[in-house]
Design brief:
- By secondary structure, the protein is an alpha/beta fold.
- It is built from 13 helices and 15 strands.
- It folds into 2 domains: 133 residues, Aspartate Aminotransferase, domain 1 (Alpha-Beta Complex), CATH 3.90.1150; 249 residues, Type I PLP-dependent aspartate aminotransferase-like (Major domain) (Aspartate Aminotransferase, domain 2, 3-Layer(aba) Sandwich), CATH 3.40.640.10.
- The strands form 4 sheets. It has a 7-stranded mixed beta sheet, sandwiched between helices. Strands 11-12-15-14 form a 4-stranded antiparallel beta sheet.
- Bound molecules: pyridoxal-5'-phosphate (PLP).
- The site of pyridoxal-5'-phosphate has 13 residues, from α4.
Length: 401
Amino acid sequence: MEVTTFSEQEIQQFRAETRGTAGRIHFNNAGASLPPDVVVETVISYLQEEALYGGYETEDKYNGQLEAVYESIARLINAGKDEVALVENASFAWGLAFNGIAFEKGDVIITSEMEYATNLLGFLNAKKKHGVEIRVVPNDDSGNFSLRALEAVISPQTKLIAITHIPSNAGNVLPIAEIGKIARKHPILYLVDACQTAGQMPIDVKEISCDMLSVTGRKFLRGPRGTGFLYVRRDVQDRLNPIFMDGHSVEVISQDDFSIRKDARRFELYEKNRALTLGLGKAVDYVLNIGVDRVWQRIQQLAFLLRQQLGGMEGITVHDGGYLQCGIVTFSVNGKEPSFVKEKLAEKQINVSVGKAGSTPIYMDKHHLSSTVRASLHYYNTEEEIRVFCAAIIAIVPARN
Ligand SMILES: Cc1ncc(COP(=O)(O)O)c(C=O)c1O
C-alpha cells in the first residue's frame, strides 16, 4: 500500500507545527499524541492571563471561545452541542454514563472480548452491587467481532451493550455501526468507548446509533492531558441519573427541590480547567481543518506498512487481527520482554509503550499474552520513521545460532 494521502509539503507542515517531532520518533500516540504547538501555546497563554487578570475575569473574556469548544466537539462527532459534556478523561466520561444507568438484578450487559479494563471493572462492580450478568461476545478465529453471536445472545433481559471501538492493546477495529443497528432493534442502551477512536477515525454518533460515547483528549485527538468528553443522546439524557451535581447541573434549586438542566452539561461540574478546555478545542479544530477522513486514510497506510515490514522479519510476531485495522500495531520480539524492547528503543529516541494484560484482560488472557510492544502511529509519522524503527527492531532481535 502506498502512503499517498497527504503531500510531502503537508506532512512537513504538520511536523513543523509539532515541535516534538523534531527530536524523536513518537510511536506512542495511543498513549498520548504529541500536541500541535497551537494547543500548548493556547493553554500556556490562558494560564498566564488567569494569573494576571483573575480566573473569573479571564473566563468572561473567553466565554465565546469556551462555548465554541462544545460546537467543535459536536461537529467532530456529528452531535448537537447540547449532547456534549466536558470531563477530565475517558474513564470519567464512561463512568458517568455507565453508573447513571439504573441497573436491577438480572439485567444483562453485553460486551466484547476487547473491552477496556476500566469498563470491565464497571461491569464487575455492577454485578456485585446490583446482580447484573455479563455476557462476552467472543471474536471469531480471524479476530473479528461476531455480529451473529451478538444477535444470538440478546434477550429481553439485555439492558446495555457496551463496546470499545478500538481496543487499547490491539489493532482491531470493532463494527460499532453494525452493532448499533442491532441494538436499535431492541430497547437496549448502547454505550461506546471511543477513547482511541477520536482523532484517528471519523466518528458519527448518528451513524453509530449509540446512546452514549466516551472520549479522551490526549490520545489521537492530540489535546492536552486531563481532557475528555461524554456524548449523551438528547432523548436518553433523562434516563441517566447524574452522579454528581452542583449549581451548574440544575436549572432551579430551592430549599426543598431542584430541576435538572435540559442538556448534557448536567453530567459535568462547573469547576474545570478552562485553559485545558480551550486547548482541547484547538486540537479538535486542528484535526477538523485537516479532515479526519484523510487522517484515517494515512494512519491505515502507515500502519499497513509497519505491519508488513514487521511481519516479514524473523523473530517477530504481529498480534493484530480483524479485517479492519487501525494505527495501533502490537507485536512481540521472540525471547525479549516488551519492557526491554521499549527501553532499547528509548535509547534511540523512539517512543513506544507496553500493552499490558491488565488493560484488555479478556483478550490478552484468551491469547495467552502477558504483554506486547505497542507502536501506535499518527498521520504526522513518516515512512522514514518506520524504516528507522524497523532497523532498531532488527538490532534487538536475538541472532540465530
Ligand atoms: C480503549 C480505552 N478506553 C478507555 C481508556 C481510558 O482513558 P483515560 O485514561 O482517558 O481515562 C483507555 C486508555 O488507555 C483506552 O485505551
